[in-house]
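User:
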Amino acid sequence: MGNSLLSDDGVGLSVAAELKRRVDQSDLTVMETSVAGLSLLDLLVGYDRAIIIDAIQTVDGKAGQIYQLDPEAFDTTRHTTSPHDVNLTTALELGKKLGLPLPQEIIIFAIEASDVSTFSEKCTPEVTQAIPTCVETVIREIRRNPNT
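Assistant: Predicted structure:
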């Protein structure tokens, strides 16, 4: 996930592009998207397992640091700045209440971003250095349970 025009915000897209080159997609799907909130539900429906890769900014994070999270990690961030959009946790709750066939397991790899506001198609150096590590981490996760 991300925006390829906002520097580090595009890191998830960069990881996905590399994954497309590195993994056999006959039994899995690698997608690049800039959607979020309720629109993300459309992409998750019908899958047993999902791995989401995105940029994150935390209070004390170090640029390029990689976190492995689950959706529950975002329970305290249920409200967005716009009443017209919802975050991942709220979207997933709504999808479950609507009976949508959502993944049983969702893993989030979040890379600490330094700059998500500068118009640039390139990530900052620290975040760029984290991309190969994140790709390898995701590949290990895919291989951990290849049948889902």
